[in-house]
Design goal:
The complex is a heterotrimer of chains A (175), B (109) and C (954). With 109 residues, chain B is of the alpha+beta class. Chain B has two helices and six strands. Helix content of chain B is 18%, strand content 30%. In chain B, a hairpin with a 5-residue loop joins strand 5 and strand 6. The radius of gyration of chain B is 15 Å and the shape is globular. Chain B starts with 15 loop residues before the first strand and ends with a helix. The chains are: A alpha+beta (175), B alpha+beta (109), C alpha+beta (954). The structure holds zinc ion.
Chain lengths: 175, 109, 954
Amino acid sequence: MLRESPLKDVVRAGRYGADKGAPGVTLSVVHPLSLVMVIARKGKAKAAKESLTAMRGATVMWAGPDQYYVKGAEAAALKKKLGDAASIIDQSHGRVMFRISGPKSRALLAKGTPVDLHADEFPIGKSAVTQMAHVGAHLTCTGKDDFELSVFRGFSESFWEWLTEQALEFGYQVN
Amino acid sequence: MGPGFRRDDDLGSNLIITCPHCGARPVEEFTFLGDAKPQRPTSNDPSSMEQWFDYVYLRDNPKGRIDEFAHHSGGCRAWLVVTRNTETHEVHGTVTAKDYAVRAKKSGR
Amino acid sequence: MGSFRLSSGGLIDRCKRLNFTFDGESFQGFAGDSLASALMANGRMLMGRSFKYHRPRGPITAGAAEPNALVELRSGGRKEANTRATMVELHEGLEAKSQNRWPSLGFDVGAINSLASSIFVAGFYYKTFMWPKSFWEKIYEPLIRKAAGLGAASREADPDRYEKSYAHCDLLVIGSGPAGLMAALAAARSGGRVILADEGSELGGSLLFEREEIGGKTGLEWARGVIAELASMTNITLMPRTTIFGWFDGNIFGAVERVADHVAAPTHNEPRQRYWRIIAKKAVLAAGAEERPIVFGGNDVPGVMTASAMRHYANRYGVAAGHNIAVFANNPSGARSLRDLRAHGLNATAVDHPIINVKGGKGVKAAVLAGGHDIPCDAIAVSGGWSPIVNLMCHRGTRPVWNEKLAAFLPPDVGAEFVAAGSANGKMLLSECLTDGAAKGTLKGKPPAVPKCKDEAYAISPLWWVKESKGKAFVDYQNDVTVKDLPLAAREGYNHIELAKRYTTAGMATDQGKLGNINAIAILAEATGKTIPEIGTTTFRPFYTPVSFGAFAGPFTGKHFQPVRKSPLHQWGEEQGAVFVETGLWMRSSWFPRKGEDWLAAATREVKATRNGVGLCDVSTLGKIDVHGKDAGRFLDILYCNTFSTLAVGKARYGLMLREDGIVMDDGTTSRFAEDHFVMTTTTANAAKVMSHMEFVHQALFPELDVTYTSVTEQWAQMAMAGPSARATLNKIVDGAKLDDTNTPYMAAREISILKGLPARLFRISFSGEHAYELAVPADFGNGVARALMQAGKEFGIMPYGIEALSIMRIEKGHVAGGELNGTTTAGDLGLGKMMSTKKDYIGRVMAGREGLVDPKRQVVVGIRPVDKRDRLRAGSHLLTRGQSPSLANDQGYITSVAWSPMLNMWIGLALLSDGRNRKGEVVQVFDGLRNHHMLAEICEPMQFDPENRRLHA
Ligand SMILES: [Zn+2]
């Protein structure tokens, strides 16, 4: 059985909003997503962090005190690797991830989050857990003007509607 | 989890709290639970009812400094203890509720 | 009457004519005009009527403090009342109306109030409309509102969008006059992140209209040079059309950016306004100073305006307020206006005696001077001195400080995070403003060099009001407070400034007394024999100028008032024709109507089909929490009143969670998948609350526990499969060994594989009382698995059922839910007292033993059914001992849940009844107060259907 995105009928590729010049932001949905939450067990924070840092081929994102989202690794593999140093909880289906890039990505995200996203304060690789449009969001800076953002699956459609409305003034491309 | 309660995030209620995990965030990302000083009694004996009553119901309402529980419900979801001045709104400091509890248990308060 | 548009000058574009209407009449202005300047250029000085006396009024300022020229803009859903014509940018097609007049601006019936003014003194409304009390709501208030209201709001929905945004900076500069530009320049050059905000349509502040020289250029040329430099830098954001309206804790500033107020309608892509929250490490208030009028008789006649406003209109807009202008000032602003107005070829004369009255009604005809002679004129420029615009710095409770020499309140010292610069800081010379701005804006190193400029000396001899005045002399224009009202307030005992404000209304409404407050304080000081600093100011609060509700609401209106949360089985629900009902934020499939069915008919059919065959229900919205760790069992033992540490792996158990005060908080089943892994479920409604509670209990109370917990509500799509054919249906999709009572007995919890390799969690639990399962699959597979189950169950007559059918079945079975877990009931009340362990500590244990919570007379859960089966029970109805009349004293309890039972063919319910367990079989009186309906009902066991639970194990 194929995985079905909750946004399959909602997100449509194309150019929207202000149509002068290059789009201010480019938006896309990361699907199918592989995202696993790793929470260090008591007294194992250091061990868990070290094992995660040593991992290859997966992205480790801070997600709270001694907690991480690991993108691109199977839950079973992580369980094997971390043993009883951490709890491993698969959220690949529970969260929906958006990719937001382009020169206006910070201006767009600032409409939702109070986190200061200036490159000096929120450099590449940094993550924050915050609230955007009344929805809990996990945000990571992945490139010069590039971000990845995930929300609970159930809110994804509502959040997408908000996000795209806020992007109208910049002009946006959906891939 | 979920979005938590909708707070009055638009009128006047602006305060910056520095979460030890997340850094400076405005007050609308937090939910509050009042005075953090009362310690949960350790006894389960019905004779300890008076202590329990104090713990569950009685809270100081000082003019000045107070240690208050704040939940970073719109962020990392850590419970914090914020020390602030109820008169001036000055925030003196923030520690995690975990550290606060460990410290309180050590000092035997 | 000559033309009021000067032949040259101004920052208007004379090649670009704009058409607009005022009270339906068509006019033309130029690009760059304000609505006020365009009306004045057309000879229309009369722009509104006053609040109480309905006196004719024209603009008295050219800016944000304007109390008089309030107009209504646009129409339909875009209608906006109480906008200041002085701040409205003229645009093609602008539609404006005067307000507070009837039937027309020129002839207003309400003006008769002016003739009766001796009775309309301060406190008039309070004194007159007091009796009889019943008249207030029906007669007095509507009448007063009609006669004395400001503009009226639209009743239509606003079609435009509003946005919100956060901004962060090292320095926020408020105001872009000489001090603000210098501060922004200093900060930007030192590399900091800077925001420069100004409420005007164009940056430059006073340099847009004052004739000054800076660095050998005109002030305007200098300003434009600085603005060009700033615009070329990447570390500064220029925000014109942005009003900083409030200063809040944490050095957060609230602002409104008028993105598209200067055009007829925003484009599809832009909002009308954007609400900003600016988090500033440091801020400089460079908002300038407000020129205040002098109080004299007739000082409100259209054509009387502040001296700076008059040269503002002439220098910036190329508009004359009049052709023969009398100038009355106690400071050098008068000489400035004389110089500038004469330079435009206008006839301007300084008065040699104070003005005591003004002749003219809808326009100035002459100024009457003390000593008795008149000066014929058509406009009067007046200056009573300058008040630094300190408002923002006083928003957090600090009061401004009186300065005798400047006869002005200066901003208080509120710390280094927020400082004032320039004339907002009492600097009255241009060179001082530039130097002050440069110093306050410098974030590190030395302040930049300040250009040379020519100063005009400043001195003031205080003059608040002209005592010989004849006729009405206004202190507060917007509220029609005259010089007589304040001493009256003092005589009647309202001599504190805060009391006098409320008694006279001076300083209230949209302008918040920006022009009148200092004069009011001075007059009150004199009336009470105190000094001005002794009287002090009223409290400054946000908002500096009015902010629209649209800006506050932002994008969160209508459909987006709150986020919508959809189940992973939402699409399956849609395919099955579900009616969705909001529960919290979730949209839940509540019933699946077929042609001609209402909700009850649909739910009845769903119940029957489930109990006779098999039903499928979306239960994904239940809170699901993965609990891991060595101490997971111990943690659950603390959270629940019953024990989980003893639960065998592969088993599920029902749990009851108390609050620390002993009242029930939530319930649900928890299953154990491994020694260190449990899966907890919560009710849909309490999922967020329970998660916060768990975090509190662990982090704040038992931090020593080795446990983690994570919401997996959204990871799993969960389906209840209930009914005699549930197992047969599931067995068609299960991989490997088929389900039976040995491998999957009642209360089993297993990880299984379905549909050739999909991982799933299977729980044999039942809320309906049927042989039932809950099947959880990763959410992306939810719709697919539900479709597969519908296919598999076809031969058994599978039926989707919704929350309504679920609720009917749980009431038939006497299971408690929201109506009973209502924040007042104990475990004992729910008939679950035996679950409370005596062998362990848990949240709520001791408090649950309080006398009042174990009182045998407490209301406990019982079943209830009508004596006459045709009667309908209603939730919320009260229960009385038979024969007693409804009263609080006789109240025995109430009905918490009702349902039409398709199995029992009558309405049944659950109720909370005092001492209910000992009253089974008793017939009670049911009183539905809403419908004033009485009936009889019999108390019974909560479980009214299949009381032996035979179906559960069938
Ligand atoms: Zn945090």
